[in-house]
Amino acid sequence: MSVKLKFFLILIFSIFAAAGAGVYMIQHQTAMPIVDNINAQPQPLSDVQHSQEIVEDSERAQYQIIPLENINSPLQGSDPTKLAVNFLDDFIPTKGKRKVEVVYPQPNQALVTVIQTPSQDDSAESIRYRLEMNSFGRSLLSSSPPIWQIVWVGSQIQCQGEC
């Protein structure tokens, strides 16, 4: 056997051994107990759910839910503001002006509020939309912006003056 062939076989064997050891370690991990410094009592580490859903709060209950199943608009994008505006453009035609606000309650969560005010010819009602989004990773490059997905949408009618 030549030296190059031996080196190549050792390299291939090392790669498979490292991959196999990694798979074995991932499958056989045990939860480490967390020790409370006050009582010195070990507590088992609970599994953390990575659902990344925004916690329902009292403000969400004030909105009428818009089901996402019937929407043809893309629910994923790299910019929460553009994603929300494109979603609403496909869902409801633009009438009047829109004010868009984005808040990030968590690093992987975005809350977009869109207030659509009617033109002066329309009634005195404005519609407020709430779009909740989660970030679930990046596209091909690590330097690219995160990918956001709409997970919940609601609307409410707001009266301005007389109703």
Characterize the structure shown.
With 163 residues, the chain is α+β, with helices and mostly antiparallel strands. The strands form two sheets. Strands 3, 4, 5, 6, 7 and 8 form a six-stranded antiparallel β-sheet that branches. The chain is built from two helices and eight strands, in the order H-E-E-E-E-H-E-E-E-E. Strand 5 (97-106) and strand 6 form a beta hairpin. It is elongated, with a radius of gyration of 25 Å. The termini are far apart. 23% of the residues lie in helices and 34% in strands.
Secondary-structure blueprint:
Elements: H1 3-27, E1 34-35, E2 42-43, E3 64-65, E4 76-77, H2 80-91, E5 97-106, E6 109-117, E7 125-138, E8 146-159
Antiparallel strand pairs: 1-2, 3-8, 4-8, 5-6, 6-7, 7-8
Structural class designation: alpha+beta
What is the percentage of strand-forming residues? Answer: 25-35%
The count of helical stretches stands at 2
Q: Total number of β-strand segments?
A: 8
- Give the H and E element order: HEEEEHEEEE
Q: For the terminal residues, how far apart are their CA atoms? A: 90 Å
Overall geometry? elongated
Q: What do the pLDDT scores average to?
A: 76
Keywords:
single chain; 163 residues; alpha+beta; six-stranded antiparallel sheet; two-stranded antiparallel sheet; 2 helices; 23% helix; 34% strand
